[in-house]
């Protein structure tokens, strides 16, 4: 049965393998063929997964710049190969799926500067922030202080 299984001309599947194995050995049963295939690595990889009933709730936007998703990507493991950039600030417009990526070398202060730079390009109505809340709170605090300082002076 192993020779038939490894032969590329043999059609894969339990019934076809059973039919061809039965021609070689009349004593073989369907249960033995199923057990043989269950123990083979390729059969385990291509085994169909049970279906999951997961409900997905779509995130929608009604116009461009209506809703933006912002996240921080950590690429510090490859910073030696990309001019010492350790973070990427990724902004995606949900409606148009247009993406903005701003490379950053440091963490909090440069994120705030990148955030201000990004907001000069487009002003969103809503932001969906995926990054760590405490980090984003620090960024917003610095951002608000800079905006208020600029407005006062």
Write up what this structure looks like.
- This protein has 153 residues and is α+β, with helices and mostly antiparallel strands.
- It folds into two domains: 2-45, no CATH class; 67-152, 2-Layer Sandwich (Nucleotidyltransferase, domain 5).
- It is built from six helices and four strands.
- It has a four-stranded mixed beta sheet with strand order 3-2-1-4, covered by helices on one side.
- Helix 2 packs across helix 3 and helix 5 (108-121) crosses helix 6 (133-152).
- It is elongated and about 85 Å long.
- Mean pLDDT is 76; it is low at 149-153.
Strand proportion, as a percent range, falls in: 15-25%
| Tally of distinct domains | 2
Q: Please name the fourth-level CATH homologous superfamily of the largest domain.
A: Ribonuclease H-like superfamily/Ribonuclease H
- Quote the CATH topology of the largest domain: Nucleotidyltransferase, domain 5
How would you describe the shape? elongated
Low confidence ranges: 149-153
Distance between the termini: 84 Å
Strand order, sheet with most strands: 3-2-1-4
State the name of the first-level CATH class of the largest domain. Alpha Beta
| Global structural class | alpha+beta
Q: Compute the gyration radius: what is it?
A: 28 Å
Produce the secondary structure layout.
Layout (H helix, E strand, L loop, with lengths): L1 H5 L7 H11 L5 H9 L2 H5 L21 E8 L12 E7 L5 E6 L3 H14 L4 E4 L3 H20 L1
Parallel strand pairs: 1-4
Antiparallel strand pairs: 1-2, 2-3
Helix pairs in contact: 2-3, 5-6
